[in-house]
Write a structure and sequence with these properties.
alpha+beta, Phosphorylase Kinase, domain 1, single chain, 4 helices
Length: about 140
């Protein structure tokens, strides 16, 4: 599978290249209007996740208890500690170990979609953990 560090790619792209890329992807920027980007247009779902969300260090998350379970994982309540900010209560969605690639892609796709929302009536995605504690 092909992969690259999104933050390198993002840092090297010029504003002209970004503008041209938006038009090529069928996205036309309009002032004051946010355009939804389909995460399926990315070759690697991890690229989409890092485009629309921020990576959270797993040591900043404390899981308190499981509040629900589904086919692919669990939803837990917990706390998020951010440097220089007050600790906040969060819901944490996890992907079960032993997942198949399709489940991983769907999980990351959902995070990419949620990361694009910025509205007071929609729960905000604080970030994702795509790396293990040892990475």
């Amino acid at each position: 599978m092909y992969s690259r560090c999104q933050w390198y790619f993002k840092a090297k792209i010029t504003s002209e290249e970004k503008r041209r890329t938006n038009y090529l992807n069928g996205s036309v920027p309009f002032p004051g209007i946010k355009t939804y980007v389909d995460p399926d247009t990315y070759e690697d779902p991890t690229q989409a996740v890092h485009e629309f969300t921020k990576e959270i260090d797993p040591s900043r998350i404390h899981i308190e208890r499981v509040i629900g379970a589904g086919e692919f994982g669990e939803v837990c309540s917990g706390r998020l500690r951010s440097p220089g900010k007050k600790e906040i209560a969060v819901a944490i969605k996890t992907l079960k170990g032993g997942y198949v690639e399709r489940q991983r892609r769907d999980f990351l796709r959902e995070a990419s979609i949620m990361g694009q929302f910025d509205h007071p009536n929609i729960i905000r995605l604080e970030g994702v953990v795509t790396k293990s504690k040892g990475s």
